[in-house]
Design goal:
6-stranded mixed sheet; Endonuclease, Chain A; 12% strand; 434 Repressor (Amino-terminal Domain); 12 helices; alpha/beta
């Protein structure tokens, strides 16, 4: 079966273009899916999903296919980068388009560490916990999340202020070493000139955003949009009056954060000392 064809009159998506190109390269090479699976070490069924557009793929499988097909396939990486956007729901794709333009980004998280600050290992555990998925799909989801982190280190990066609920920093990963790595990455991010981290301790008590994570983006034209999220759904909000209400709630929440940015960094440093596994006693 060939790659999925776009509907008549519609411009093909990057995902469809990638699938079509993968199918074309294999056809020109004269390789069967079984042979390609042996040469790339990826399951033939998974490779078939890539050629039909059912899956987008991960950096690993794209690199393996590049190696098999040679220099003629170097553009696969660029196609794959464009195709990642098709892996997200329409509302979230709209949010991603806006976040790429934002000059200021405020975020409050209650369930997990912000995606822009997650390590690969932490992201894997978060995705594994949300729903069952095979290793290839898991690798795709992790790669898509980590791929967005360049926003904070690009030229003209947005100012990013993240308020982390203390519960986020108390819910460690199963692997203590991975959790230490994640906390260290938070400290590293806090040193970026455009990043400010603040911890909202338990003692701050109830507040207007209790149980809800929110991101507020300020755009170059002066508009602001918001994205709210819980464990099972997310909503993009562009109505100015609703965004203003969330902005006010965020400002009040920030005032409740009894720990200053400097004190918040010290708080995370203490957590690293607390959670870092002790070396076994040689005696």
């Amino acid at each position: 079966m060939g790659a999925r064809k776009p509907n008549a009159g519609q411009r093909p998506s990057a995902r469809q273009m990638l699938a079509k190109e993968l199918a074309r390269l294999r056809e020109e090479s004269g390789k069967s899916l079984a042979t390609l699976g042996e040469e790339t070490t990826y399951d033939r069924a998974y490779l078939h999903k890539l050629e039909t557009g059912a899956r987008v793929g991960s950096p690993g499988v794209i690199a393996a296919l590049n190696a098999v097909y040679g220099t003629a396939a170097e553009h696969l990486t660029m196609l794959w980068q464009l195709a990642q956007e098709d892996a997200f729901a329409d509302k979230y794709k709209r949010f991603m388009q806006l976040e790429a333009k934002a000059t200021v980004r405020y975020e409050y998280t209650v369930g997990a560490i912000p995606g822009l600050l997650q390590t690969e290992g932490y992201a894997r555990e978060v995705f594994e916990a949300t729903r069952p998925r095979d290793e290839n799909e898991l690798s795709e989801d992790v790669a898509a999340r980590l791929g967005r982190q360049g926003l904070l280190r690009r030229e003209n990066a947005p100012h990013f202020r993240a308020v982390l609920d203390e519960s986020v920093l108390r819910r460690k990963t199963r692997d203590p070493k991975e959790w230490t790595k994640q906390l260290e990455q938070l400290l590293e991010a806090s040193q970026l000139p455009n990043v400010t981290l603040q911890v909202l301790p338990f003692e701050a008590g109830p507040h207007a955003l209790l149980g809800t994570s929110v991101t507020i983006l300020w755009l170059p034209d002066g508009r602001a949009v918001a994205y709210t999220e819980d464990a099972h759904s997310g909503e993009l909000i562009e109505d100015s009056s609703e965004v203003e209400k969330l902005r006010l709630s965020y400002d009040l929440l920030r005032d409740l954060a009894l720990l200053s940015p400097r004190d918040s960094v010290a708080f995370i440093e203490r957590l690293i000392e607390e959670y870092t596994p002790c070396a076994p006693d040689p005696t």
